[in-house]
Amino acid sequence: QVQLVESGGGLVQAGGSLRLSCAASGRTFSMYVIGWFRQAPGKDREFVAAIGRSGISTHYADSVKGRFTISKDNAKNTVDLQMNSLKSDDTAVYYCAAGVSWRDYNYWGQGTQVTVSS
After folding, report:
1. If both were cysteines, with which of 14, 28, 32, 52 could 57 make a disulfide (CB 3.0 to 4.6 Å apart)?
2. d(CA 49, CA 70)
3. Distance of CA 25 to the CA centre of its chain
4. How far apart are alpha carbons 91 and 103 in whole angstroms?
5. What letter does residue 53 receive in the DSSP assignment?
6. What span, in angstroms and rounded, lies between the C-alpha atoms of 34 and 92?
7. pLDDT at position 114, please?
8. Is the pLDDT score of 16 beyond 70?
9. SS3 sequence, the chain?
């Protein structure tokens, strides 16, 4: 069992930056792939970024490549999402999730709201 708690959301102007953090407790964090997802009002949840068990391999959605950076600290049981050059389209509730593979996420946090004003 893994418990995930997101933090760092808020209101920012377009072009600004935010750093989200996902803190985990429970089973060994290094066993899991960690992903960030987001859901905007009226839209389906979508993949944003993910990082592998060791923290070396990463994947990004095309919409955030070059703007967002995911990082993992297995010693601290945290995964951060640095978001730069934010756009109004980035407005959503952001969730972190833990899973045993890149496509299979078993544990989810409660989400943190990110609002980008234009």
Report:
1. 52
2. 7
3. 16
4. 24
5. T
6. 19
7. 98
8. yes
9. CEEEEEECCEEEECCCCEEEEEEEEECCHHHCEEEEEEECCCCCCEEEEEECCCCCCEEECCCCCCCEEEEEECCCCEEEEEECCCCHHHCEEEEEEEEEECCEEEEECCCEEEEEEC
Pair of tokens at residue 92: 């959503």
pLDDT in tens, 48-86: 999 999 999 999 999 999 999 999 998 889 999 999 999
The answer to whether the CB of 13 falls within 8 A of the CB of 2 is: no
pLDDT band at residue 91, thresholds of 50, 70 and 90?
very high
Please, what is the end-to-end C-alpha distance for the chain in angstroms?
40
Asked whether 9 and 22 are in contact (CB, 8 A), the reply is: no
